[in-house]
Design a protein that fits this description.
With 271 residues, this protein is α+β, with helices and mostly antiparallel strands. 38% of the residues lie in helices and 15% in strands. The longest helix is centred in the last third of the chain and has 17 residues.
Length: 271
């Protein structure tokens, strides 16, 4: 357990569509408390499974669950190491675009009806602003991860790039998976609901309102950019190693991941 204090709190100025989790910077770590359900468990499970996909260390953020004491309250959540080198900045795509053009990036994206055209416009704008010529495959990989793990809170405020002190841009490690795996048990996905019906209710907020349509679009544009070659034993072992969350919650997370493995069998092979 870690005890955290108000002076360490670091809350975003923008209110998330899911509400803002309590967030602290303590030493060289970031801590987030659960807000609507089991976000900390989702961060942990997704990052542990991403470690089995072949992604290089440092291209995604590793999370572990944590018990937090704050104002004499016991909270569950997660912790991750600060990945920003000294004097680097993290710029969300919305902030980046608005700082250059004074307008919302979403207005540019959603001016197109076709999902592939929205992706092309987004990639083109980011490439123009950053010279990151590999941003297209990077975005495709991120949206594939979101579709597989049912992240329903990805948007232009949590897709980001990094800016170094010399003014050069870099791809940002994949982060912020807390809204995955039906974690919002307060509003959207109650624990007493049928898990398979609830999975069908999950709607993304990034490029379109359907995970499958986004996945099909990025694969048509960039091909398959990531595979998920894990099976039941890997999922079960990750959940068994976690020490804070209730078994009922873990069982639901296991059911969601296993259903996605069955649904996207072509992504779970080791081709």
């Amino acid at each position: 357990m870690v005890e955290l204090f108000s002076k360490e709190m670091n809350m975003p100025s923008r209110q998330s569509s899911k509400g803002n989790q309590l967030k602290w910077r303590h030493e060289n770590n970031w801590y987030k408390a659960d807000y609507a359900g089991y976000e900390g468990l989702s961060e942990y499970v997704v990052s542990e499974l991403l470690a089995q996909t072949g992604l290089e260390e440092g291209t995604f953020v590793r999370y572990t669950t944590e018990e937090i004491m704050y104002h004499e309250r016991r909270l569950l959540g997660c912790v991750s190491e600060n990945f920003l080198p000294p004097h680097w900045q993290l710029l969300t795509l919305e902030r980046l675009y608005r700082s250059q053009h004074g307008a919302s990036l979403n207005q540019v994206i959603y001016a197109a009806d076709d999902i592939k055209e929205r992706i092309r416009r987004l990639v083109l704008e980011v490439e123009r602003l950053t010279n990151l010529t590999t941003f297209g495959p990077y975005l495709a990989r991120l949206l594939t991860i979101d579709a597989f793990f049912l992240n329903d809170d990805r948007h232009m405020h949590n897709i980001a790039v990094l800016l170094d002190p010399a003014g050069e841009y870099h791809l940002c490690p994949f982060f912020d998976h807390g809204a995955s795996l039906l974690s919002d048990t307060t509003l959207d996905y109650p624990m007493d609901g049928d898990v398979y019906r609830l999975m069908d209710k999950s709607k993304p907020k990034s490029i379109a309102r359907d995970h499958v349509e986004i996945l099909e679009a990025v694969e048509q544009l960039y091909g398959i950019t990531i595979r998920f070659p894990f099976r039941y034993q890997s999922v079960a072992s990750i959940l068994e190693a976690e020490q804070y969350y209730d078994k009922t919650i873990k069982k639901r997370v296991e059911d969601v991941v296993m259903q996605q493995i069955r649904r996207y069998e072509y992504l779970t092979s080791k081709h």
